Amino acid sequence: MAGALGDRADLLDELECHLREDVAESVRAGSPPEQAWDAAVARLGSPAQLAGEFGKLRTSRWLPARLAFLALALGGAAMALFLGSGLVNGRVRPLLAVHVFTVTVGYAAGLGIGALAAWALLARAGFGWDSTRACALRSAAARLALISVAMTLVGVVLGAVWGRHYLGRYWTWDLREVGGLAVLVWGCLLVWWLRRGRGIGLAGMVVAVMGNAVVALSWFGPPLVTKLGHGAAPWAHGLLLGAFIVAQLLVASAALLPAGRLTARRRT
Amino acid sequence: MDFGKDLIAASATPLVLAILVEGDSYGYAIIKRVAELSGGQLQWTDGMLYPVLHRLEEQGAVTSRWRESETGRKRKYYALKSHGRKVLAEHKAQWLVVHGALSSIWGNHVPA
Questions:
Q1: Whole-number Å distance between alpha carbons of A137 and A27
Q2: Model ipTM?
Q3: Binary contact (B51, A54; C-beta < 8 A)
Q4: What is the DSSP-derived secondary structure letter of residue B62?
């Protein structure tokens, strides 16, 4: 049953609860326990039937996931137009343009996972959470993780080729290269975890939100360090980056709150 | 009496919502209430009810919460939301039209 219904632990708990109630009532009515159990399981339906019925639920209708993919598509299109105009004007070379595009989309997809997880944590704390949205989150996170890994990998490889061509070495342990590697490793871990069928529980949401810190530090940390190295005092840049990371910690702390605080308060 | 799958499917949502108007409830109790309301004629399977409940929750018509039952075990209760009341009102209006039409024609012509 668990295999057929995937990682919907909440749903399995609910069905187990139902089975117990059904069996208990049958036993109270005089049925032998084994007969009561067999009848209750028969009334529940086969795992394949249940999975088929639940499969019809359109988990992709989770609005935040749709918004995340839309934002990624629009951002990617805008970046492509910007770089394309640079190519036409001769401001940027093709290799660098494709490198910048793929890294940007890869990083943005990584941030998208964190954004969805942040939304899920806050929604859970305010209004509660359910297995349908958990599945939608898992599905969206898995797709975004694949996009992030694929694009970042291409970006890292192209960056290495660019480095070989212009700096004489494929890898110089530049902070941006290290950042790209960090995002790549993070993405691969996430893909591996999600493809093993593990749902995104609270711990997963917290880890995904902290992934935003990994991406932000990889993306905006190197330019900050470069500016510091040249004697500049990039206060705004540093403050923004610091504030963003602190914000992720605050959002992650929402996991400590009980679910559905706002709906609970309305009922009391 | 055998009921058509389409009829069972069409009536599931308004029945579940109407039962939740009576108060918060859980899956097993909802199935029992449906059987009670239909005089035992409608025997829903669990495989039919829970996808309906989850779909209604996804659509924002109902909300769910785990609570401790009288036996001490956790049980998932469903509650109607304001959007669910609107959905129920729409279903009710539609079913009353169908009921009225069928009552009119069956009232005049007794089926063989």
A1: 40
A2: 0.79
A3: yes
A4: E
